[in-house]
Specification:
The chain is of the alpha/beta class. It has nine helices and seven strands; from the N terminus they run αβαβαβαβαβαβαααβ. The protein has a single domain, classed as 3-Layer(aba) Sandwich (Rossmann fold), CATH 3.40.50.
């Protein structure tokens, strides 16, 4: 029984979570800390990070940083090592959705979306993978989306970035899994966060989304806890390059 309990354990692991100040990133950072990991939360808003730390259980640290600044990701990688040592687990939850219709997409909006949603997960991982290789163990968790495989109105830039996450996850697995590093993605359905505020402001639209799931409701933040701990632990040692849809069966219908 003890072996089974340890199978899903992240106790003592060092985890970095980007986008930890709100939404799915904050939930991921919180549950990893509760489960015994030492968690470094990264986000742009220092006040929101401070609030997360004040309400999180366990060993935590925070770094205020914009991960879309590719040229400074090496500096971030150096800072991440200082609180608890080199990360074993890397969760890329930072994201943006400009919600621009195809005819209204601007170069600035496109670049901001791809930089944060797709470029940052690769280059930050690239900086941190060598220390995982040295240990022979690592977990990279990307955040995919319903739009990894579905086209939604006003989502052409966001959808392109999240489709890219699907392929990036597979390519990371091909490159790094021989060294003990698994790379997988979680694909959330509709969860009420800052990023989806526009959707949930319309009760009819929110109810319509819930009706499209097999389960019949939209997601609660706690619905992500089990899948996240699975992918961050030894329980998923033979799972890599996969997108696990946590969407109540939205993509099954």
């Amino acid at each position: 029984m003890a072996e089974l309990q340890n199978l899903f354990s992240v106790r003592g692991k060092v985890a970095c979570v980007t986008g930890a100040s709100s939404g799915l990133g904050r939930q991921a950072a919180t549950v990893l800390a509760q489960a015994g990991a030492r968690v470094i939360g990264v986000a742009r808003r220092s006040d929101a990070l401070a609030d997360w730390r004040a309400n999180a259980d366990g060993d935590t640290a925070a770094i205020t940083f914009d991960v879309s600044d590719r040229d400074k990701l090496a500096d971030l990688a150096d800072e991440l090592i200082k609180p608890f040592g080199a990360p074993d687990i890397l969760v890329h939850a930072a994201g943006i959705n400009t919600r621009q219709a195809a005819d209204d997409v601007t170069p600035e909006g496109w670049d901001a979306t791809l930089s944060l949603n797709l470029t940052a997960p690769f280059f930050l991982s690239q900086h941190l993978v060598p220390s995982m290789m040295d240990k022979g163990w690592g977990r990279i968790i990307n955040f995919a989306s319903l739009q990894t495989t579905r086209a939604f109105p006003g989502g052409i830039a966001y959808g392109a970035s999240k489709a890219g996450i699907g392929q990036l996850t597979r390519a990371m697995a091909e490159a790094w899994s021989p060294f003990g590093i698994t790379a997988n993605a979680i694909g959330p359905g509709f969860f009420q966060t800052e990023l989806t505020a526009a959707v949930f402001k319309d009760p009819t639209r929110a109810a319509g989304n819930a009706a499209q799931t097999c389960i019949g409701r939209n997601g609660e933040l706690e619905d992500l806890d089990g899948p996240l701990l699975f992918l961050c632990s030894d329980a998923s040692a033979y799972v890599t390059g996969q997108v696990l849809m946590v969407d109540g069966g939205f993509t099954a219908k």
